[in-house]
Amino acid sequence: xxxxxxxxxxxxxxxxxxxxxxxxxxxxxxxxxxxxxxxxxxxxxxxxxxxxxxxxxxxxxxx
Amino acid sequence: xxxxxxxxxxxxxxxxxxxxxxxxxxxxxxxxxxxxxxxxxxxxxxxxxxxxxxxxxxxxxxxxxxxxxxxxxxxxxxxxxxxxxxxxxxxxxxxxxxxxxxxxxxxxxxxxxxxxxxxxxxxxxxxxxxxxxxxxxxxxxxxxxxxxxxxxxxxxxxxxxxxxxxxxxxxxxxxxxxxxxxxxxxxxxxxxxxxxxxxxxxxxxxxxxxxxxxxxxxxxxxxxxxxxxxxxxxxxxxxxxxxxxxxxxxxxxxxxxxxxxxxxxxxxxxxxxxxxxxxxxxxxxxxxxxxxxxxxxxxxxxxxxxxxxxxxxxxxxxxxxxxxxxxxxxxxxxxxxxxxxxxxxxxxxxxxxxxxxxxxxxxxxxxxxxxxxxxxxxxxxxxxxxxxxxxxxxxxxxxxxxxxxxxxxxxxxxxxxxxxxxxxxxxxxxxxxxxxxxxxxxxxxxxxxxxxxxxxxxxxxxxxxxx
Lengths: 63, 467
Hints:
The complex is a heterodimer of chains A (63) and B (467). By secondary structure, chain A is mostly helical. Chain A has one domain (4-58). Chain A has helices at 4-26, 37-58; strands at residues 31-32, 35-36. In chain A, strands 1-2 form a two-stranded antiparallel ribbon. Chain A is elongated, with a radius of gyration of 14 Å. The mean pLDDT of chain A is 90. Chain B contains 20 helices and no strands. By secondary structure, chain B is mainly alpha-helical. Helix content of chain B is 77%, strand content 0%. The longest helix of chain B has 47 residues, at 148-194. Chain B has one domain (2-466): Sodium/glucose cotransporter, CATH 1.20.1730.10. Chain A binds chain B through residues 3-5, 7-9, 11-12, 15-16, 19, 22-23, 27, 31, 34-36, 38-39, 42-44, 46-48, 50-51, 54-55, 58, 61, 63, and chain B through 65, 68-69, 72-73, 75-76, 79-80, 82-84, 87-88, 91, 199-200, 203-204, 207, 214-217, 232, 236, 255, 258-259, 262-263, 266-267, 270, 274.
């Protein structure tokens, strides 16, 4: 089990990677519902994933 | 109502905290009463200000989806603040401190550090309060049609009324209510925008006319990778050095509250960041001809809604602005009184401290109003500059103070002074190469100076002991 501070830093790092990946990988992938795919990935999916993982991870911390 | 509720709650917890014996401390901090959802709401409401609602949506109007992407850097702010700092504050808590400066004073026992911290906090907050006043007045005048000056008077009068009477506890309670109002208002506004029949067609037209607005790096690559990465320091990692959010950690109830606060705070932060910025971009499709980008939020409200509903929805952004300005007002005034005047006049009674704080609040308000009388077109840059200055001073001393037991007051003072000086120097040289934000070199310089002074102190201590 990790400490709360380590968990917070690791999750932030994970979010940072996902946030970067949208424009790096999907910048030319077209549009969905009038908004570009990179935007859906980095601005909608990445935060949602962070929240889901956060809920699971916080039950597993020791402080 | 908030005052009545907060007074009743305060009676319950004051006895367990021993706060009934210190009227001033009760006014300034209110005890360890912040449970999970309340903690989340007050943190995000304080953090989300005119910068997001007015300046942020205005910048998104101007720079497009790239700015929304930039704004979403802020999503882990609560996670970092509560997870990294909150857990440590809770673990080492021995005494109830009323202000951040009081904690720094107890931790480092260096009067130069405390004085420097107090002066930086007050100057930084006056700039940020001024930005909030501009945002609030602009909203009121934009939606109701009254003059900017009258809007300023009404807005400032309302904030002063409850901050002067209620203290920290009233500020936190109103923050929580304002947080709920903000979320509801934002959802309604977004739904109204999305239900516009011609929105999809206008978005397509916009993407054909100005495709750069739909790219991550905006027009002429303005939002470059180096700039984006430096914003990770400025609006995410660096927020651990913002005094008005950190002070809330002094009032956290327990570990369970901290964990609940992290989850709720991250969800609320995501919604409160995404929706106003996205509204700014969608607003560009609906109202493409605004000359002052900051006017997009009031324009969306007054342009898409009947006057009565627009007036009601105005409560959301006004709440965002108020919830930040009240916290900064209370923090700066209480720092001057608790950390400045009380040290010179230790016999000052609790009642007199509270009255003096109210007087100082009035003086700070008048100073901020003076600067708000001639507002710029986009407030986002002033807000970010003041944000960075506070971080350059406070970030490393707070983190080192919590996690590095042997760090000395002189090392922390070196970090503060070098952080502030290098930030001001870099700010005067903007734009920096590759559009890096001045906070990056400033925090680097602050860290290096802190490490050098710490090593020197250790070297001299060893030399002294061997001699």
